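Postdoc handover notes: sequence design on the structure in folder B. Input tokens:
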């Protein structure tokens, strides 16, 4: 299943995926997210930072970009692969598979996009410096 299929909402916007607004916000947040990803890796917290994009409350990670304060559509939390495994979002036996598919954290942000219908991982390229 494609993330686009998973993230479709039946709202007033005809066939417009929430991924459109997420893409806009991720482009806006790109530099801030990159800085936090580098900080997570440099401080030795994790080699695998994960950013949770959500529009409602989630109990994963720490809020770093608040949609209310920034007048955007998505909140972003910062987390790590280790927290995802610890909380059971990624099963221990699938941890290596996730690592094998994880893209270069200096070039792509790993985003766990959460909507009422479900959630999925997206690797979104950082903007050009």
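Designed sequence:
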């Amino acid at each position: 299943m494609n993330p686009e299929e998973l993230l479709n909402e039946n709202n007033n916007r005809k066939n417009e995926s929430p991924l459109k607004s997420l893409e806009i916000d991720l482009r806006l947040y790109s530099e801030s997210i990159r800085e936090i990803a580098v900080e997570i890796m440099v401080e030795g917290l994790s080699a695998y930072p994960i950013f949770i994009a959500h529009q409602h409350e989630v109990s994963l990670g720490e809020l770093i970009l608040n949609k209310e304060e920034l007048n955007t559509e998505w909140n972003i939390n910062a987390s790590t692969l280790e927290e995802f495994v610890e909380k059971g979002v990624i099963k221990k036996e699938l941890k290596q598979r996730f690592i094998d598919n994880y893209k270069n954290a200096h070039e792509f942000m790993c985003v766990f996009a959460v909507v009422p219908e479900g959630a999925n991982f997206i690797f979104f390229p950082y903007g050009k410096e």
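Context for whoever picks this up: The first strand starts at residue 49 and ends at 54. Don't rerun without checking with the PI first.
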